[in-house]
Amino acid sequence: SGTDQRQVLSSVDVNWRRRDADSDLRLVLRDTKTSDLMRPEKSRNKLTALYVDYKLTAPGAQLRLGRQSPTGGGVMGRFDGVQMGYRFAPRWRVNAVAGAPTDTLLDTKRRFWGVSLDADEVPTHGH
After folding, report:
1. What is the radius of gyration, based on Cα positions, of the chain?
2. CA 13, CA 103: separation in Å to the nearest integer?
3. What is the dihedral of CA 85, 87, 93, 99, to 10 degrees?
4. Is 101 exposed, middle or buried (0-12, 13-18, 19+ CB in 10 A)?
5. What is the pLDDT of residue 42?
6. How many CB atoms sit inside 10 A of residue 112's CB?
7. C-beta of residue 50 within 8 angstroms of C-beta of residue 29
8. DSSP E strands: which ranges in 37-127?
9. Are 17 and 53 in contact (CB under 8 A)?
10. What is the DSSP letter of 41?
């Protein structure tokens, strides 16, 4: 009996980072290709991530631009867009996000934006 190889899965995951006392710069690429050897028209490519992420340590600012998965802020699912954040007090951070989902839904053109506020270790006062 013979067996045909029907599918080949290829993936790439590349991370590059430069960090010093003042800043942190990252470039990320994640891609997967599924090749259907019996029906080439069924082959698919899925670019999971392709973004640049830049953080400034001193003011607590962050910017991420490109294809990315959400890190909070009410966004669900992979999207193309921008996320920004700024720490304006020791325990408080304001964030903004805008973009377009990468997964199609009934051929609609969708865009979104949002703003969020994060609080770290908020003290509670008890009696």
Report:
1. 20
2. 20
3. 0
4. middle
5. 86
6. 13
7. yes
8. 44-56, 61-68, 79-89, 92-101, 112-119
9. no
10. G
Q: Is residue 82 within 8 Å of 63, Cβ to Cβ? A: yes
pLDDT digits (tens, 9 = 90+) for 72-117: 777 878 899 999 999 998 889 999 999 998 877 666 778 999 999 9
Task: Beginning with the edge strand found earlier in the chain, give each strand of the sheet holding 112-119 in spatial order.
Answer: 7-19, 23-36, 44-56, 61-68, 79-89, 92-101, 112-119
Tokens at residue 72, please?
A: 């909070």
Indicate the pairing of strand 23-36 with strand 7-19.
Answer: antiparallel
Q: Which of 98, 75, 89, 97 is CA-nearest to residue 119?
A: 89
Separation CA 22–CA 36 (nearest Å): 47
Q: Tell me what pLDDT residue 126 has.
A: 62
Quick one: tokens of 95?
């964030």
pLDDT digits (tens, 9 = 90+) for 15-68: 999 999 999 999 999 999 988 888 888 888 889 999 999 999 888 899 999 999
Q: Count of alpha carbons within 13 Å of 49, Cβ hemisphere only?
A: 17
